[in-house]
């Protein structure tokens, strides 16, 4: 029977009273790039003001796969950290084990139900109980373009795949890498899901990715997707294999590449380099996907450690994460948008304002769906099965015909 441990049923005065010097949280996360570290510093500073010390446990890796491996080792050893950054189905998996703390009292006191979008609450709650505090909403279907290179190409941002390929050809003629990409499975998957959305629209994305329909996974539209991926591969530089995503962002920032397909966390790298949206770089929805949003949400879960002192620090951290002022301060640095719908966009730049507007419209219009590559489209086993096929195909190890045959088979085997 599925269960969740209720680690304390009331928020004690101690949790929000004067901070005790020895209070601390050990936090496992994968925010290790420059822009991410700067955003994380906002939370560290906020907690320090509340008398809560931060013990860092960073695990590099942009999609959190390595972090979850490290977490399993810690839990197996009987020494879980106090708080962990998690995504989507990983949260559900750990909740099913009954090891996460209950945040219901804090959520009720602060009214989380009224301000956190339902799509996020599906991952923030388990069996009706709050077990995670959402920090942000990222979306993955973005294209980041060097403004100077785009101006040389005529200044028009591409609106579909045909126009994207034409722009990449122009970048090649300029003598720069047309498309900066890092050859890691999660990055390949991030690009693939954007192309799936572009070629088939949201209905097709939901059918193929969310519902795992075999006909959609192996049909004519998916053939176009894999053909597009083959063509996109021709615009990478020779050193793309294994490159971290932020190094690809740096190529665009420095004018060595024309564009990068990546989630909106990439904006943190541009901002850290003192670049300005619309002046130094351009942010657009991946061509053909405007009006649709693929999302992932970083959330913090608190392990039930059976320790009142640590529980107090955990609640202070969860409260800090959901504070509207923190949501603004953090997300303006991180590149994401707030996890709360009651936060104004006043402090956000043009890309942030667009992200918030797109998210609100997609949520209202039914065109908001979880990102497969970032843990919100399918459980981990299915995600990894899709990654295997996508990456092998992108690297030329299997043909499009083989990919179309293997993709539905791999998904069925992983379920």
Description:
The structure is a single chain. About 50% of the residues lie in helices and about 15% in strands. It contains 19 helices and 15 strands. Helix 2 runs antiparallel to helix 16 (about 325-335) and helix 18 runs antiparallel to helix 19. It starts with 12 loop residues before the first helix and ends with a helix. Residues about 1-20 have low confidence and may be disordered.
Short description:
With 415 residues, the protein is an alpha/beta fold. It is built from 19 helices and 15 strands.
Instruction: Report the biggest beta sheet as strand number plus sense, adding barrel if it closes.
Output: 5 strands, mixed
Total number of strands: 15
| Estimated radius of gyration | 21 Å
Q: What is the overall shape? A: globular
What's the total helix number?
A: 19
Strand residue content: 5-15%
Structural class: alpha/beta
Q: How confident is the prediction overall: mean pLDDT?
A: 92
Give the uncertain stretches in residue-range form.
Answer: 1-21
Intertermini distance: 20 Å
Q: What strand line-up does the widest sheet have?
A: 2-1-3-13-6
Helical content, roughly?
Answer: 40-55%
Topology, please?
Blueprint: H1 13-16, E1 24-29, H2 34-49, E2 53-58, H3 65-76, E3 83-86, H4 88-96, H5 104-110, H6 112-115, H7 118-124, E4 125-126, E5 129-130, E6 133-134, E7 136-139, E8 142-146, H8 147-152, H9 161-174, E9 177-180, H10 185-210, H11 214-217, H12 220-233, H13 245-253, E10 257-261, H14 266-272, E11 281-285, E12 293-296, E13 299-302, H15 308-322, H16 324-334, E14 337-338, H17 350-365, E15 368-370, H18 380-394, H19 400-414
Parallel strand pairs: 1-2, 1-3, 9-10, 12-15
Antiparallel strand pairs: 3-13, 4-5, 6-13, 7-12, 7-14, 8-10, 8-11
Helix pairs in contact: 2-14, 2-16, 10-12, 10-18, 12-19, 18-19
């Amino acid at each position: 029977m599925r269960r969740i441990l209720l680690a304390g049923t009331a928020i004690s005065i101690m949790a929000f009273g004067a901070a005790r010097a020895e209070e601390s949280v050990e936090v496992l996360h994968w925010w290790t790039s420059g822009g991410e570290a700067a955003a994380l510093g906002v939370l560290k500073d906020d907690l320090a003001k509340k008398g809560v010390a931060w013990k860092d446990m960073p695990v590099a890796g942009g999609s959190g796969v390595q972090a979850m491996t490290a977490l399993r080792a810690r839990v197996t050893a009987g020494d879980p950290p106090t708080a962990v950054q998690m995504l989507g189905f990983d949260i559900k998996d750990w909740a099913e084990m009954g090891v996460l703390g209950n945040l219901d009292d804090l959520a009720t006191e602060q009214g989380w139900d009224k301000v956190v979008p339902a799509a996020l609450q599906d991952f923030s709650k388990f069996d009706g109980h709050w077990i995670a505090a959402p920090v942000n909403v990222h979306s993955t279907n973005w294209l980041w373009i060097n403004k100077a290179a785009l101006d040389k190409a005529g200044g028009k941002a591409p609106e579909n795949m045909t126009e994207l390929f034409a722009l990449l050809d122009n970048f090649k003629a300029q003598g720069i890498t047309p498309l900066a990409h890092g050859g890691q499975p999660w990055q390949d998957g991030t690009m693939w899901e954007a192309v799936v959305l572009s070629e088939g629209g949201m209905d097709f994305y939901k059918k193929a990715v969310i519902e795992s329909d075999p006909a959609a996974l192996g049909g004519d539209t998916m053939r176009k997707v894999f053909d597009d991926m083959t063509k996109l591969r021709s615009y990478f530089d020779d050193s793309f294999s294994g490159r971290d995503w932020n190094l690809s962002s740096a190529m665009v920032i420095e004018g060595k590449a024309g564009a990068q397909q990546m989630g909106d966390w990439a904006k943190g790298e541009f901002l850290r380099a003192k670049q300005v949206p619309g002046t130094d770089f351009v942010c657009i929805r991946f061509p053909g996907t405007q009006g649709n949003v693929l999302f992932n949400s970083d959330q913090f879960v608190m392990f039930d450690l059976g320790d009142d002192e640590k529980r107090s620090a955990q609640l202070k951290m969860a409260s800090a994460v959901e504070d509207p002022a923190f949501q603004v301060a953090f997300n303006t640095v991180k590149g994401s948008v707030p996890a709360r719908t009651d936060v104004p966009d006043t402090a956000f730049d043009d890309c942030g304002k667009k992200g918030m507007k797109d998210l609100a419209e997609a949520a209202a219009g039914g065109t908001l769906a979880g990102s497969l590559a970032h843990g919100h489209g399918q459980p981990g086993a299915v995600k990894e099965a899709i990654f295997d096929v996508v990456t092998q195909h992108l690297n030329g190890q299997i043909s499009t015909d083989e990919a179309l045959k293997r993709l539905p088979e791999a998904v069925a085997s992983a379920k």
